[in-house]
Design a protein that fits this description.
about 30% helix; COV1-like
């Protein structure tokens, strides 16, 4: 587990997302690990849409455990954080998000409840953080042989 969390290129996690947990209108960071296998997705009530497998680590020590959850695409909110930023946010109990928080002050709560195509990412197009996130995702794809 610790190797997966601490691997320098973030190769075991594809991206950082938000999911409603543990209650409605409360969000937690999670890491996308894979598409959900058909053996699981076919038995879940996903409304016929795709599902992703997420790892929701516990803070501040994510190597000690967390939850593996299978979530329909419509329930996942993309955010503009690199995998490294997401891990730092967890191990610092959110303190590392202080610089990101200023950028998110203008985020409308409806964006968090919106469809996956309406993401917080859209607010940061062209931003340095967006470039870093794209680079991180590209490194992750290269490391996993994905295209």
């Amino acid at each position: 587990m610790s190797d997966a969390m601490l691997e320098s290129d973030g190769g075991n996690f594809r991206e950082v997302v938000l999911v409603e947990f543990p209650t409605e209108e409360t969000y937690t960071l999670a890491f996308v690990t894979s598409e959900t296998p058909a053996a699981i997705a076919d038995h879940a009530d996903s409304g016929g849409e795709g599902m992703r497998t997420l790892f929701m680590p516990m803070a501040p020590n994510p190597v000690m455990g967390g939850h593996v959850v299978f979530v329909p695409e419509r329930r996942i909110v993309d955010v503009e954080l690199t995998v490294d930023e997401g891990i730092r946010a967890l191990v610092t109990s959110g303190v590392a998000l202080e610089e990101v928080a200023a950028d998110l002050d203008d985020v409308d709560p409806e964006d968090l409840r919106g469809a996956p195509e309406r993401t917080i990412d859209a607010r940061f197009q062209g931003d340095e953080r967006s470039e870093r996130a794209d680079e991180s995702r590209e490194r992750t794809r290269e490391g996993s042989g994905e295209r």
